Amino acid sequence: QVQLVESGGGLVQPGGSLRLSCAASGRIFSINTMDWYRQAPGKQRELVAVSGYGRTNYADSVKGRFTISRDNAKNTVYLQMSSLIPEDTAVYYCNADVQIDPYGSTWGGWGQGTQVTVSS
After folding, report:
1. For every residue of 18-72, which 3-state class applies, written as one string?
2. What is the Cα–Cα distance from 39 to 42, expressed in whole angstroms?
3. pLDDT tens digit string along 26-85?
4. How far apart are CA 92 and CA 113, in angstroms?
5. To which H or E segment does residue 9 belong?
6. Measured between alpha carbons, how far is 81 from 84 in angstroms, rounded to an integer?
7. Which of 42, 44, 63, 106 has the most CB atoms lying inside 10 A of its own CB?
């Protein structure tokens, strides 16, 4: 089994910055992808940024403001968020696709989420 734990959320003023972390632990052989999603009140969960197979990609709404990065030695993915706006307010979730053995078996799942609130 694999666990994902997010941290780093909080209250920030417009124009400010936050860095989110998501650490994976448990039965990990290798990590294929680690991504960030968010869900605002009354809205569907949306993809924010992806990291996997040597590539990254971003939702248009966060391009140029958010940066996803990974520390493979720590099985951790980060989301550096800058120039935050009130529309970025949401619960941010980590999602991962993990290989759990040398034979290609995989696990996919979500963290518990961390609240980000952008408000003056």
Report:
1. EEEEEEEEECCCEEEEEEEEEECCCCCCEEEEEEECCEEEECCCCCCCEEEEEEH
2. 8
3. 999 999 999 999 999 999 999 999 999 989 999 999 999 999 999 999 999 999 999 999
4. 5
5. none
6. 7
7. 106
